[in-house]
Amino acid sequence: MSVPAIGLLHPGRMGAAVGHRLTAAGHRVSWCADGRSPATAARAEEAGLDRVADLAELTAASDVIISLCPPAAAERLAASVAETGFGGTFVEANAVSPARVRNIAGLFTAARVVDGCVIGPPPSDGATARLYLSGPGPEAARVAGLFAGSAVEAIVVDGGIGLASALKMAYGSYNKAASALAAVSHALAGTYGVGDHLLAEARRGAADHLSAPERLSGVAARAWRWAPEMEEAAATMAEANLPDELPLAAAAVFRRWDDDRDDFTIALPDVLDHLHER
Amino acid sequence: MSVPAIGLLHPGRMGAAVGHRLTAAGHRVSWCADGRSPATAARAEEAGLDRVADLAELTAASDVIISLCPPAAAERLAASVAETGFGGTFVEANAVSPARVRNIAGLFTAARVVDGCVIGPPPSDGATARLYLSGPGPEAARVAGLFAGSAVEAIVVDGGIGLASALKMAYGSYNKAASALAAVSHALAGTYGVGDHLLAEARRGAADHLSAPERLSGVAARAWRWAPEMEEAAATMAEANLPDELPLAAAAVFRRWDDDRDDFTIALPDVLDHLHER
Known about the structure:
The structure is a homodimer.
Chain A: E1 6-9, H1 13-24, E2 29-32, H2 38-46, E3 50-52, H3 55-61, E4 64-67, H4 74-83, E5 89-92, H5 98-107, E6 112-119, E7 129-134, H6 139-146, E8 152-156, H7 163-192, H8 195-204, H9 216-239, H10 245-255, H11 268-273
Parallel strand pairs in A: 1-2, 1-4, 2-3, 4-5, 5-6, 7-8
Antiparallel strand pairs in A: 6-7
Helix pairs in contact in A: 1-2, 4-5, 7-8, 9-10
């Protein structure tokens, strides 16, 4: 695999950006035009990717295939690659669960599967993304080597298939669900004409518990009164015909800390452990 | 109401801090010892509050009563004040829904009710909090005047009862649910041993959609693929015996934007409007 031929499925926004970083680093990267849109073709051309007609041709010509597609399509796409008898390295780089990556690995008889995930914006001259890779043996490190010196920072996570996906699920569920929370909050504030006040409060900045998890002990101690507050918020959303699921879901999380009421001394690992179903 | 006597129910962490700012500003503030804990009594004393024996005595002696208590207790507490025949100004400052504040206002026959909410930490010499107030007539402004020059910044929101509570619901549901999201994410990452990577990503900082809602148009355009990603995250949480409600709730929000797929031109007001049930 000293000069591996790379196949990319598919050149969406993220896929094309990652492919462009590979071609910029001197690699030959192919994409498969069968069934793709003119917009995809345009992105592929701009990224310097070589066009092949169909999937069979792509898999026959590739040592490494990188799968970057919408999560709902990931398993189907992997199955179609497996059906061609692909025997190289398949990088499952999508936002899917560790269990699904294990399923996907089981689809292949000849290929070696590496679990991966991309965190960050589509990489470009001005923006870097991280590609986390985990998998058995030296495959993850080999894939990481393809990106050396590029705007894709490849990071190998030791421990086998599933770890890169778990990281993506942990990070993405925070980040994307937080954007859903913000949307519902602004929709509610707009309904009552208090959007400017909400924005002013937001711009004061608030505690970010993802980057300062040590504060979660204080959250657990207060959760007994935050659960009812979230239920009040859910009722407010419902009354405004807005989705009430997010505050109800937060209340369900807070109720797992009922036994930690007003105890500000519990260590973070125990606080997190109490979230597991008992 | 030039030198009003103030009653405070109850001196919890937030109540005692707000009461302390009032006594520091020269006001006389009473609290009601009946049924409260020694910890509450200690906080009340430190805040310079006058002790009275029971609720009837407190309401008889007070021109203004400020209710600051856990949200689950707010309506019951208001009802017990109403039953005394209290005829002054009742400030419902708790984290409850606008509908509940309207219910509470309906409990009183003689009192004037002002809707309020506190956002920020318990106020002190080093920390300010905002007390938003909304209500009919000049009452909200009168209550705001009590806090002039203190570490409680009182802000009157024109438009009547419900607006201050709606603001608290919009802000609190973001902020507190985001802490629940962070907790579940760290618990998941810990389960897979990738907590350090999650923390490193968190510390890079990510888009904050509450303080930059203009980015929500891009969220709506991507929501068609983020909903399945949230379902993958939910499956990952469930497999780890962690609560899966938050990512499922985010998926439900994202599905309300199905019709906005890949349309990056929709204006923010329309994006928010699409969240309302149609």
